[in-house]
Structure formats: C-alpha cells, structure tokens
Task: inverse folding
C-alpha cells in the first residue's frame, strides 16, 4: 500500500521494497532496525485518528511477523500527500497508515487477524466489515445484475 502510494501519488516511479530490490535507487520500504518477526509490541494511536476511536484507547498490544516497514525519511511526504500515520511504536516508527478521504483504506504492519475471534473481533477487522456493509447496496447482498 505504501509502495503504491509512493509510486503513484508522490510520483516516485523508481521506488521499491528493500526485501525484493535492496539496490533500488529509492526505497519506500526498508528493513526495520529491529525485526518484529514473531514479536508482540505496543502501538500508540495518533490523537484524533479513527484508529484511536475504533480501539477506544490510546494504545494496544499487537502481533507482528515482519522485518520491513515504512522508510522513515518518507513519512513527512506521505502525510503531506494524504496518507496519515494512525499508529506508531514507542520510538515513533510507523505501524499503521490510512487515507482519511476513503471509506476504509488502512494498512497495518501488525496482523489484526491474530488477535481476532468470533467472540472478540479485532477493531480493525470490525471497522473493515462496517465499511463494506455501508458500501454494499441494500436488497441484493452486493450482487451485480
């Protein structure tokens, strides 16, 4: 999601991902200073963000399986172009982004499905389902004729 935003909104067509193209001239996604693969960590929600409202608190503990994340050098340009940082870790590194001008355009570095169950649906997944329900025409289950 971030890579496509950097390429198509910021216009950096040469942007790439460090895992698949480590020698690319411009990296939108870079190796994290400390891998989060198999770790649990706290995420802190930006004041006024939809994520903070969804969770009903300032922070949450989430599960990660990654070693790459948003290049911190690009964060100001991402935010200026409409991709808001909705959650960070304690050091301020990006853990969740969203477009506020879209019904549900959210990307997380953590895996919401690992903390979700039928009895306790993860806030991100619950809000995704709500966004789908709001966008689905009533009466036909969303089927197109």
Result:
């Amino acid at each position: 999601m971030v890579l496509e935003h950097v390429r198509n909104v910021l216009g950096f067509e040469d942007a790439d991902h460090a895992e698949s193209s480590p020698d690319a001239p411009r990296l939108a996604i870079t190796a994290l200073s400390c891998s989060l693969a198999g770790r649990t960590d706290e995420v802190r929600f930006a004041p006024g963000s939809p994520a903070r409202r969804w969770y009903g608190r300032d922070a949450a503990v989430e599960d990660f399986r990654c070693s790459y994340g948003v290049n911190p050098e690009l964060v100001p340009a991402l935010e200026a172009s409409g991709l808001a940082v909705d959650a960070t870790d304690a050091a301020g590194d990006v853990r969740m982004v969203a477009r506020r001008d879209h019904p549900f355009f959210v990307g997380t570095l953590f895996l919401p499905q690992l903390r979700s169950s039928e009895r306790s649906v993860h806030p991100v997944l619950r809000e995704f389902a709500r966004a789908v329900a709001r966008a689905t025409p009533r009466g036909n289950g969303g089927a197109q004729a």
The first strand starts at residue 15 and ends at 17. Helices lie at 2-8, 50-55, 75-80, 123-135. The CA atoms of residues 94 and 138 lie 37 Å apart. The chain has a mean pLDDT of 92.
